[in-house]
Amino acid sequence: MTFKELIASEKPVLIDFFAEWCxxxxxxxxxxxxxxxxxxxxxxxxxxxxDKNQELSVKYDVRSIPTVMIFQNSELKWRQTGSQTVQVLKxxxxxxxxxxxxxxxEEEEE
Length: 110
What we know:
- This protein is α+β, with helices and mostly antiparallel strands.
- The chain has four helices and four strands.
- It has helices spanning 3-7, 23-39, 54-59, 86-101, and strands at 13-18, 44-49, 67-72, 75-81.
- Strands 2-1-3-4 form a four-stranded mixed beta sheet, covered by helices on one side.
- It starts with a helix and ends in a 9-residue tail after the last helix.
- 26% of the residues are buried.
């Protein structure tokens, strides 16, 4: 699956741009594991190594790591640099899910 296909999902897709040598990234990993346990299948969580994906890192202007982005339907919905709490990340994902769950404007059938 390409990155383009990955972020085209209707489900929110959280991308963690990280590097193996990055201390704060390693400290952030358990937060992502806890987040995954909380959101289950309602969102996808993907880690992308900036050293192995330099083109992508340049395209999305990742200058500091960890950088977290949340995409939905190919749109960047949220972005933050640095470690985040489970509560902050879950809140951002929940906002996107709430928009999805809202009733669509439907035409009345007569």
